[in-house]
Amino acid sequence: MSTRQIEPGDAHASRAAFASIGSRYFPLLVALFVGVMLISNVTGTKGVVLFDDWLNIDIGPIHMEGLVTDGAFFLFPLAYVLGDVISEVYGFRAMRRTILAGFAVLILASLCFWLTIHLPAADFYEGQDSFETVAGVVPQFLLAGLAGYVVGEFLNSFVLVKMKERAGERHLWARLLGSTVVGEFADTLVFCSIAATALGISDWGDFVNYTIVGFVWKTLVEIIIMPVTYFVVGWLKRAEPTYQEALEVATAGTRDVR
């Protein structure tokens, strides 16, 4: 395989290697990512309080009676793990396509839910109110979910790829952690700022609680399952022939520059 010499200052003089999206693995990752986002968008409309029987904190403006979160707290962090895997192996352009695909599916799902709710119910159907409660499209939630999703995922991928362009294959843990902190914080802040009142959060203490708990929880989950992320990333890099080819080019180009 031929490689060209990369000159200092060349836009392609990067230590970062990325696989081609024309593989059998990339569509599966995109499907899983979109599925997680779709499920989280529905379960996230339920307000949840955990440990309210023993966790009570009253410090200045922060008044906590339990951990205030939502029904997506146990699944949503997986979306950022998948985003990290796609960004690390396939790059920012591939993740951008994935984000846009997820955005389109979320919009389509919202339109389908709205249309189904407004279709005439059969006389024998007794679940109209329940269906509307669960699947109803609340504009505030929809805006909050889409805004947080787009801002958070784009920042997460952008930060990870930029760090990789500087460090190459080294310090994956730093990329995973750094991108998570930026992306999750932006996502949580944007979502909570828009959706808080719709969830019934009306005072500053609950808002701070909801925002901090969401951010800390999502970040901790990514840290806890980082060994799994490492394993998946490592396996994909070995399984993707185009990644190995790109890695050879990046390595050769770095040697030429030096």
UniProtKB/TrEMBL annotation:
It is a multi-pass membrane protein. It comes from the Bacteria. It is found in: Cell membrane. GO terms for cellular component: plasma membrane. Keywords: Cell membrane, Membrane, Transmembrane, Transmembrane helix, Transport. It holds the Pfam family Vut_1. One of its GO terms (molecular function) is transmembrane transporter activity. The chain crosses the membrane at residues 25-51, 71-92, 99-121, 141-161, 173-201, 207-233. Belongs to the vitamin uptake transporter (VUT/ECF) (TC 2.A.88) family. Q precursor transporter subfamily. Involved in the import of queuosine (Q) precursors, required for Q precursor salvage. PANTHER family: QUEUOSINE PRECURSOR TRANSPORTER-RELATED. NCBIfam families: queuosine precursor transporter. This is Probable queuosine precursor transporter.
